[in-house]
Amino acid sequence: MLRRTASLALVVTAWAVTCAAGCATDDLVDDPADDAWLDGKADGATAVDLAAIDLDVDLSDLDATATIALEKNGNVALEVGGLTIDDVVDGRGHRRYKLVGGQLRVANVRGPLVVRYRFSTHAMADGLLPGGSTVVWPYFCGNLFPCHSRPADGVRFALHLDGVPAGKQAIYPPTIDSDAPPYMIAWAVGSYTRTELGTTTAGTKVAVYSLPGGLTAARTGTKHLRAVFDWYERVLGPYAFGKDVASVSVVWGEGLYGGMEHHPYWHVAKDAMADEVTHAHEAAHGWFGDGVRLKCWEDFVLSEGTVSYLAARALAVTGGATLERQVWAEYQRELDDAIATGGAPAWPTGCNQIDIIRDDLFTNLPYMQGAFFYKDVAAAVGVDALDGVIGRFYRAHKNQPASMQEMIDAIKRDTGFDPTPIANARLRARFGPR
Ligand SMILES: [Zn+2]
Prior knowledge:
Number of domains: 3
Shape: globular
Number of helices: 10
Bound molecules: zinc ion
CATH topology of the largest domain: Immunoglobulin-like
Radius of gyration: 22 Å
Largest sheet: 7 strands, mixed
Low-confidence stretches: 4-26
CATH class of the largest domain: Mainly Beta
Structural class: alpha+beta
Distance between the termini: 22 Å
CATH superfamily of the largest domain: tricorn interacting facor f3 domain
Number of strands: 21
């Protein structure tokens, strides 16, 4: 995600504990172990991880079927806080389930778990938006499909949309064939024009989807995008999410700015479509944030700081010295604003103890202190040497979770330069009044 200036206002729902409608139905499969689970004696931490989610969505009546492959058979706890559950089936038949604290709990699941459900439109950047696109970052996937929102739990996806309004197109990947964070999957529905931007050295087709009246802005913002994507592939390593990629213009409401890393068709707000940094930033998330996932929410800077630096680096190489100066001058203004505003340190200690929204980690500090952290390191070790470190890190952790500490260790190991003092000054320090 690329945020600019404003803050995200989100409503956090207080979940109620309810018994599912299916509890009293006669033909449900049950077993003795269900009772401990359904009585709340087992918790979500003991539940199995997800391997793949296949979503079949009908937009005409907002209902869907999720077929979920598990890492292994066992107790399943899925986030479903914004969904109405109609039926749950596994290899044994219709299953008892319980809704507890926004979770769907099913004991001793065998084989794929099939959940039929309904969902609704959300106005606060937390599900299907009125503008026709979806966004579930950071932990709102349970408003759109049954999920685990922890980014470390990577999952493969399949997606199929029916009921797309006449005259409009739905832009989405039919499959995501390597592990991705749960917030990566999305769709966008609109009256789109696709413009080809060319093919990279590795054979990836790069395009841009614009909305009516938006073609000029789209062309301006994607002037270097094919070359930028080519640079990421050549310097960092092979892209993980297919051979066809695009920036997609979306209409967002209040609370979202810039873009969102919905690879391979990442979203860019209609009013940011002329901004080259936004396109380069979201494209770079294919390598960090999506390609390498966050081990903990506290590692947010490994996603946003790294891609902010990579966007500046790629635009410098492909766009020249004037564009490079413009990007860093804008980053400096944003850093100054972020320091004045404050928030959580760019890289808080701990693991999944912070709430990224409520505890103020979602400010511009991780983005800009992160970018300047790498710029300071590059000044010490050389930009090409740092490119090499970041590329090796990507290839070592591709489609797996990783931490910012691992990046700092990699810089020290590969270059002999210890960036810890820079990290302490920029990333661990608290700034501003809040
Ligand atoms: Zn971002």
